[in-house]
Amino acid sequence: MADQMQWANALSTRPSLEAAVTDVVEQAVSSLTVPADLGLVFISSAFASEYSRLLPLLAEKLAVPVMIGCSGGGVIGTTATGEPQELESQPAISLTLGYLPGVNIQVFHVLSEELPDLDSSPDAWIDVLGVEPSPAPQFILLSSAFSSRINDLLQGLDFAYPGSVVIGGQASSGGSSSQISLFCHDPEGGLHQGLYREGTVGLALSGNIVLETIVAQGCRPIGQPMQVTKAERNIILELDEKVPLVVLRDLISSLSEEERMLAQQSLFVGIVMDQFKLSLQQGDFLIRNILGVDPSVGAIAIGDVARPGQRLQFQLRDAEASAEDLELLLERYQNQQGSQPSAAAAFMFSCVGRGQGLYGKPNFDSELFRRYIHDIPIGGFFCNGEIGPVGGSTFVHGYTSVFGICRQMTAE
Questions:
Q1: 104-155, pLDDT tens digit by residue?
Q2: DSSP readout, 260-285?
Q3: Which residue range or ranges hold the FIST domain (predicted)?
């Protein structure tokens, strides 16, 4: 058993921070047969005034070489009976511990001003993070929602670490008054330990570990794919050589009454990531906001760069579409598994706009996940932006649930 990867997650809703920390450490440690190499901790914003006490309290009760974590408007974890639970707007801590034989674990904290320019060489990114590109590391990033230049960091990682998987989320709070926090403990890291308000903390895991992803953006396509024939920056000036607003009005008039109502507040655009793929399905689109329209010229502004030649398709999002999207992706993942070593643990980074507010009931995404991928610990939090790959590149998403599924590369 000692040469097998082991993971445990524990969850506590004790309102006292000391009691909650004691609770999660005792539960998680008792679930492992060996000392942990790694910890990830997520703490709800109900404890915002006590964030500075979290790492010292954990250090009193737990000897783990590397620990990262952050605050969230809610946390996600696994109960003592193995049920996933999403705890929103209440005191809660989720602690995940991992024993990872054959895995090299590195931790870093990087500020926006330390990031290289986007035209820098891969070596510049490797120097900043101190992580070698081979064997390809798997990254877990926790970022401040502001001033972290997270999009630049993701582009840099994709560039300098080809073949790596990057997942994570932006720390969140329960309200504007709560400060967010990032946590990072590394005994060998010098300044790279403690509590941070800015930047990004990250883990790089390389060796005998695979990180597989499910990125559920919660939309379903409407109408047909179209090509951007004229654009400037993020403004679409022509779709299939027609005025975008006219195209959109024609599309909306063809919808059912229910869909037309939904389109008034939940209309998005899906950028096709593989320009050569003809049969499009969930997971083939990068979902982006429609920021506004210019009625004078019929242009549409979107939350990303629009380029001539891109294909896109309008999308609707609601609870039903969101559930269908995740289920389709889970079915596809399950069907692709074959004889690979089974999953050992999972991380869930879900938008603060999902959860009970979207579905009208708690634990929806995590319970659906568990229906397909059973009996593994799951930990995570509700984010202000979710990090995960679509079409081979890494993006920050909204209204999304990103799952990272860990397993060994080789069966023992």
A1: 999 999 999 999 998 999 999 999 999 999 999 999 999 997 767 999 999 9
A2: HHHHHHSEEEEEES-TT--S--TTSE
A3: 35-243
Least confident of 37-41, 261-265, 361-365: 261-265
**Within a domain: residue 1?**
no
Instruction: Give the residue from 286, 317, 348 where a domain finishes.
Output: 317
| Mean pLDDT, all residues of the chain | 93
- Residue whose entry in the numeric block shows the structure tokens 């602690």: 95
- Collect all residues with Cβ–Cβ distance below 8 Å to 279 and sequence separation of at least 6: none
Dist. CA 226–CA 315, nearest whole Å: 12
Residue 44 three-state SS: strand
Give the global pTM. 0.95
Answer positive or negative: Cα dihedral of 78, 79, 83, 86: negative
**Bridge pairing between strands 267-272 and 200-207:** unpaired
Neighbour tally for 242: CB within 10 Å: 13
Domain end, chosen from 297, 317, 337, is at: 317
Q: Judge if 310 and 334 occupy the same domain.
A: no
Phi, psi for 6 (deg, rounded to 5): -130, 140
> For residue 179, what is the DSSP state?
P
Question: What is the per-residue pLDDT across 386-402, written as a single tens digit (0 to 9) for each?
Answer: 999 999 999 999 999 99
Residue 43 half-sphere exposure toward CB, CA atoms < 13 A: 32
Strands 378-383 and 345-351: parallel
3-state secondary structure of 127: helix
| Residue 257 burial (10 A CB sphere; 0-12, 13-18, 19+) | exposed
SS3 for 196?
A: strand
Count of alpha carbons within 13 angstroms of residue 320, beta-carbon side: 5
Helix then strand then coil, % of the chain, to nearest 5 = 25, 35, 40
Residues 53 and 64 in one domain: yes
Distance CA 118, CA 82 (A): 44
Per-residue pLDDT band for 3 (boundaries 50, 70, 90) equals confident
Cβ-count burial of 121 within 10 angstroms (0-12 exposed, 13-18 middle, 19+ buried)?
exposed
Calculate the CA 260 to chain-centre distance. 30
**What values do phi and psi take at 48, rounded to 5?**
-50, -40
Q: Residue 66 in 3-state DSSP?
A: strand
Which residues form the domain of 292? 219-317
